[in-house]
Known about the structure:
2 domains
Amino acid sequence: MSSGVIRSVGVSKAFGGVTVLEGASVTLYAGEMHALVGENGAGKSTLAKIFAGVHAPTVGHLELGEQHVHFSGTRDAAAHGVALIPQEPQTFPDLSVAENIFIGRQPGKSGLVSWRTMHDEAKRLLETLGVSLDPKAPVRGLSVADRQMIELAAALSLNAKVLIFDETTASLTLGEVARLAEIIARLKSEGCALAFIGHRTEEVFSLCERISVLRDGKVVSADKPISETSVGETLRLMVGRDIPSSQAWEEGWGGGEILLEARNLTRRRKFTDISLTVHAGEIVGLAGLVGAGRTEVARALFGLLPLDSGDVLISGEPVKIDNPGDAMKHGLALVPEDRQLQGALLPWSIWQNNSLASLKGAWLAPGKERELAQSWKENFEVRCQSVEQSLSELSGGNQQKVVLSKWLATHPKVLILDEPTRGVDVGAKALIHDEIQKLTAQGLGVLLISSDLPEVLALADRTLVMREGKIVRELSRDQATPESVIAAATGAG
């Protein structure tokens, strides 16, 4: 058996008197990837942050090798060889790619930064990851996936002995995940101890050698060899009940009126000649590699990105959408790719976030806002103490539920979903999918952008595949397969 590099011993953590992690004892072994799985709010990210020095345990301690350690912060943990690649990229938008990789550790002497050394080393690290980013370019405007790879490059620059991947693959394409798998294999061969937090069971079972399952803040199964368990057993441990596999929509959709039509939309250097329709009661999938222009099309439809040419029609009538306010007046709603930067006000309460999009020029009565939030909390099973709680205190998946409910509260005609279940556990994903199905059955139109190909294939009535800013293929439900989508997205067919 590989030797244990770092372990938590009876670790508990409480915030404001509320215990979110209790008695967790987990060991990360050299040369292995260890999966930490559980529903959102189960405590897995809290445990990961304790390993990485973000949080100090309320009870219990860490052992690094044979040494009892107490990290005073992330810098101290990094000095001991422990690094965390967080679920949400913590980059500085106005600094360059290289500056973000080496933030606080810029190479140089006597207080002077060696810019050439920093840029060359950043370029080398990015090439190792197979990422073509300019080290001198500012981070502002980069996609979530690109910023995630910058975080990974920063972690690799530390030559860490312990690397913790918190939902790192959630924003990556299949090609990028494959590249990451190669990097993980190399790190294992070098004797690194790795931890992986993720909700895609196929990745957990292909990347990891060991698994620990958390539920309601407790470890219900620890350090188990992955060869001795199964997907079904793991899901039952996670949620305490059986979870049915994702089911596709029932066949027989006949098509309602055209709610949204785009004709020859073009935005220079982003996308060209985009034409699509979304009918009432229909989900249209927009698939493609990261950088293909999917998010830019969504932002343009919602008035966040000006068009150079093209027309947008709502229910057959031409409309002018210059800003999100115009889009909302015409019945559009957008759940953005980056919930923390674009989808929510994290310091605000749940009820304040929930009613943001529903305000009509003046504040609603606080009582009605709280009532609205409570209704959606129950509908989406948001795990929180109360709707008074700050959104920042919730797990990523529960934050996403609030962001989604905020837009559904506007009763839109067309809902544009950009990576709607990124970082969401299997139980919450099933709940979100079920809600989307119920609403489309009532006549809602949905434009779905997702890097989770099984999600697109399970939900979409039609799938449009983008490559290099253009729609290159339209696939019916019968035609849409992993092979056909990937072939179109990569230009292989």
